[in-house]
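As a warm-up, study this chain.
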Amino acid sequence: MQDQADAGTRERLLAAAREVFAERGVKEATVRDICAKAGANVAAVNYYFGSKEKLFMAVLAEYMQAAHLRFPIDMDLAPGAPAKDRLKAYVRSLLYKFLGDGDPLYEKLGMLLTKEFIDPSDQFDVIMERFIMPQHEVLLGIVRELMPESDERSAHLCAAGVVGYCLLFDHMRAVIRRMCPEMALESLGVELLANFIFEYSLAGIERMKGFKE
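Now compare it with the structure written out below.
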């Protein structure tokens, strides 16, 4: 019975933290508010997670796991699909993980994830090792296949460019909306944006084939 009670408290803390972090951000969220929403003692966060920051990483890990199931890297392509198709699927997957698919809570958590990409906290290494690096290795594999004659640094630069384009439209969404409203995410839509980033990235990779400094 105690194990069930512990599991229940932990899940309530995660659910409450998900909403509080999404609403207020990590800095403004308080342990007291999270525990009050979860119906738990204020000491519960330290007991189950160690700190507010580690609780946030647990929320991100839960988010990343759910996002991977909803938007897998291959977006359910058939096995053995061409590298170009896998690149397009990867871009679509990454954008949906950052931008969401219309769920307001999911979108806010995606924005918090993007902030960690831009300015990672000390605890983010856990997410990097468990989720980000394995997925990035998949992207590197695709890029290497598309530019087999190029050196390793060029492959890494091209892979970083693909991710960078995706991050740009998420992290800069408010600025883009002010500068050019017709280019705002809500005007373009994820699918159109994914197609653009795919074609733009593919052209860049094609241009970089065989490039050696």
